[in-house]
Amino acid sequence: MTLLPPHKTDGHEVKLGLVIDLDTCVGCHACAVNCKEWNTGGHSAPLPDNDPYGSDPNGVWFNRIHTFEAGIGTDSRTVHFPRSCLHCEEAACVTVCPTGASYKREEDGIVLVNEDACIGCKLCSWACPYGAREYDEDAGVMKKCTLCIDRIYNETMPEADRVPACVSTCPASARHFGDLGDPESDVSQLVAERGGKELMPELGYKPVNRYLPPRAPRKDQGAHGVGASLPWVSSGEGTNLAGAGRFLRWVDRVLSR
Amino acid sequence: MHPAYSVIFFTTASGAGYGLVALMALFGVLNGVNLDPWLGAIGFGLGTLLITGGLLSSTAHLGHPERAWRAYSQWKSSWLSREGVLATATYVPLALTAWGWIVEGSLSGIFGLFAVVLAMFCLLTVYATGMIYATLRTISAWHNRRTVPVYLSFALLTGAAWLHALAQIFGYQTPIQAAVVGVGLMLVWLLKRSYWRIIDTTPGIPTPESATGLGDIGKVRLLDNPTMTETFVQREMGYSVARKHAQKLRRIAFVAYFVIPFALLFTSESSPGIAIPGTLAAAILVTVGAVIERWLFFAEAKHVSMLYYGAKSA
Fold it and tell me: How far apart are the first and last CA of chain B?
């Protein structure tokens, strides 16, 4: 059912999720690669790759690593920013689903897609503010991060490995996995200690994952270069004719006159 | 947002179809039009064709059209599911009303009730279509008070224009029919003007700072994309081909769905000699205008996830 599970009134609600430390993330993309590696054989397998050696390689990935700059001059920071499903408490991707394919698990809050019931209407990807869902053109269904549901409960694996693939592979230990519904858990303590952030809280989707902001730079040691304002990279605005066919290119030419 | 042709065709064609059969039902009940069986056959036939063609085309953008029946199940939470249920249910009063008009030659008594129920279901179905978009908080251009009224008013205008043209061909035109087209024109003009004013002056609330949680450091700007080529999210949500031409296309749409049809309506009323080609041209033009408007509705809409790809606002 695409109704969200009822909130528990007694005891604590398990909210499994990730805590991502933007202070230590080095932007190596290892989490994205290991995620792809695991999940192309896991619950949502396969994760397609189209034109992998051509001019327009594209495919389904559950982690995307952006790099942002924040601030100006010597106080500015370059921040690598891994982005994946935040397993929202108020997951609109679930409630908009017309077939019941998209669902949120009552027992741990993980948001999943039942690929056998998905009609591939893509409405869930429109409803997701974080761009976390990616459509599989080959299978005609939507795919998304499963929080490695096939690892975290996998009793055939050593207990230490029962964490999502992205967490297990991170060389900087920038990714942490746990129950954010339990205030005593390690991840909740970490969030409290470091002032973990919710992304776009103003939209009200109540994401479970948290991002730990970079620590303030220590000015008493190390080198401090001259802050340079880098030019804007790929604004995302303006015209992009990449997706346009011959007809639209012609319309563009006519209207540009 | 990427404007899928199947969805644009669906919303405009089925909107016109629901508008046409709803108005036929109401005019029929209120004795506003002659219940000529041929007018009924062609009117309900065209309406059913537009509705069904639209619904079928909407399944064309699905990854698994053969599973479309599953979309009837989640009406408790999903407006898309509700739209599917309502659209299908509408066929029942549609068939009964058409029977009353064409075979019984009367829309009174029980058939009058069917006709009123049909008009109500048409209204609810188009309302549900509008709500699919209006409830998406991720797209501020759609999440506003004008989206649903705009969908309803275009269904009214295109339906009324086609009814007026058909009635004209059969010689059953009345000033009231022309007046309803006129009301549709005014509603579409005012609502769309207001819609564009809202989306031009009200950016979405989230910012690159709130999207990344890095606002405490300062202004946030993208340094590097995750990939060298475009991902699904960029292609689907980051579509921006139309934005450069938005103002021109808005004017073209406005001329097509308001200016020329308004002039044609006026001329057709005053010179009956050209009324048939005039009202027919008006019906075609408002439909073309609705298609351009619907294309812009998608292409102009910005999705909040683009904040992660360098958009400064969404």
Answer: 11
